[in-house]
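thought: fold this chain, then report.
action: predict
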Amino acid sequence: MADGGGGGQQAAPAAGGVMGTLASWGGGMWNYTTSTLNSLMGFEDLDVVNPDSGQAEHGSTSDVQQLQGVDEAERQKAFTNYRDYIGMDITSLVTLPVWIMEPFSILQTMAQIMEYNEALDKASACEDPYERLAWVVGFCVGTYGSLERTWKPFNPILGETFELELENGTKFFSEQVSHHPPIGAGHGENTNWTYDIVSAPSTKFLGNSVEIYPVGRSRIKLRKTGEEFSLVPPNTKANNVVIGRTWIDTAGEFTVLNCTSGAKCSLYFTPCGWFGSGRYEVSGHIYTEEGRKVLALAGKWNSHLDMVKCDAEGDPLPGAETVRLWTCKPKPTDDKYGFTYFARMLNSCKGINPMPSDSRRRPDRAALEAGDNATAGAEKYALEEMQRAERREREKRGDAWQPRWFRPNSDAKIYPIEYPPDQCPLWEFNGEALKREKRPAKPDDDFAGIDFCPWQYPEIHQYDDGTPDG
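observation:
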């Protein structure tokens, strides 16, 4: 289903309590860096290999939860509504019920990469340029440790935002800057580095599977050295989304380029083979500017990544020390959605007074978190209707949509490995969100699901009794 248009700049807060009946599937991400590559489908527990072999190895039950009340008959019945989309990009075309969703916005999934931001601090402090690149790669791979979930996050409303501030001074801010096509932009920083992302994914529906193309642009800059890095992740495929057990695989080349020097990392994500062979495995090398191998990398994208010095053939040098670049942190074993502890923190509004457009204030997200699926679906539909009303109002007034916290940057340089501007537009953070004076909150305050307002025209939105929202 197309979500319709609309959204707007943050204004006076709109009250909660909006009602409706449906939920839609769409959205921009990365997720990256990847942001939600492995979170797009979720009808059953995740199988990690050929599900028809009868001997397939299963993924972690702590992170892959079976959806209650959803059986194959329901999926096949639902498929009759989707089959006309075979071969199409369904990023914002297909209607899916709220029971496949998790209480998380795609903007929040973009922030998950910040969980292992200390790897960038280590990169900044590293004297060897190739080891610096390896630490950047460790940071980038770390996000995959949180992406085994098979639930679908909410597609952001145009103008929706998400903000994060960690105890070590790291900050992250994201905004949905476009609705059709869905595009999210994000910026992270601390005293050692900056991180910028534009996420503009596309998909292809293949009947019983969905191919996900993580179109985007992610750049990391180290303040100390002035080096800038760009990365391009591999594709992901959700298999058996209609018939059979749903399982997800990420496979192919993951490239990180030092745009300043020309050094590069090429990391290969092994496709999942028969009987689980190769599941999660990653391996590759750091290359000099001249293309010579100097470091070998190996690990599993759900647990760890190591580096070791190597010879020109790529084999580890005798006696060389193996250095752990990233280790996946322990995860809760009883979380319904397979959230990590970090994801739980991203969803908490306790003692925080986020801006009215923040994802944590969404009433549909809050209702789903509370276990009220019916209200979550109704609130989701109502928000979409308000978004459509915003689009109609803009057309009526002749106004143009302008994001508040990011701006187009058509003059930015495009590096060789990156997507061209017609596939991934250029956006840059204007810095104002991190300079503003924040409204204080009491320790017991919790604004989750309350006064969500990403709207450009809050005065046009009505309660059921006809009074204005704001």
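thought: worth noting. Residues 45 and 64 are 6 Å apart (CA to CA).
final: tokens above.
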